[in-house]
């Protein structure tokens, strides 16, 4: 039997601030309703910037224009309820900040999203038990601390077909 190949899950998240409040989603998770930044998985053929634009639109109906990379984060979760635990799952999260446009009222949100909401950092800090992961607050704190990397900090290179 061939051993399972370990691969991290690559995700993106968007920090959208307006008048001191942050755009968040309330979503269904295995642990119940949780708060998160608009976020999701990188899909085949996408750049990280394309993924964060797509995920923000799908989860909030707000168009998103990335302006900077706030940070890259790695987190690990143990898998629950599996007999063949291979050590859990590791996520690499790329968090961008930028401008969010007006929502498209005709657009439906991803099925797991219950609603979007705007919260201040203090409101978010007051309910850590509702955060999807500790990265929710960490990314806001890093953003508020002024952490910004240029968009070209992460390079995307296309590789053509093998010859």
Automatic annotation (TrEMBL):
<keyword id="KW-0378">Hydrolase</keyword>
<dbReference type="GO" id="GO:0017111">
    <property type="term" value="F:ribonucleoside triphosphate phosphatase activity"/>
</dbReference>
<dbReference type="InterPro" id="IPR000086">
    <property type="entry name" value="NUDIX_hydrolase_dom"/>
</dbReference>
<dbReference type="Pfam" id="PF00293">
    <property type="entry name" value="NUDIX"/>
</dbReference>
<dbReference type="InterPro" id="IPR015797">
    <property type="entry name" value="NUDIX_hydrolase-like_dom_sf"/>
</dbReference>
<comment type="similarity">
    <text>Belongs to the Nudix hydrolase family. NudJ subfamily.</text>
</comment>
<dbReference type="InterPro" id="IPR033713">
    <property type="entry name" value="NudJ"/>
</dbReference>
<comment type="subunit">
    <text>Monomer.</text>
</comment>
<protein>
    <recommendedName>
        <fullName>Phosphatase NudJ</fullName>
        <ecNumber>3.6.1.-</ecNumber>
    </recommendedName>
</protein>
<dbReference type="GO" id="GO:0017110">
    <property type="term" value="F:nucleoside diphosphate phosphatase activity"/>
</dbReference>
<dbReference type="GO" id="GO:0004787">
    <property type="term" value="F:thiamine diphosphate phosphatase activity"/>
</dbReference>
<feature type="domain" description="Nudix hydrolase">
    <location>
        <begin position="7"/>
        <end position="141"/>
    </location>
</feature>
<keyword id="KW-0460">Magnesium</keyword>
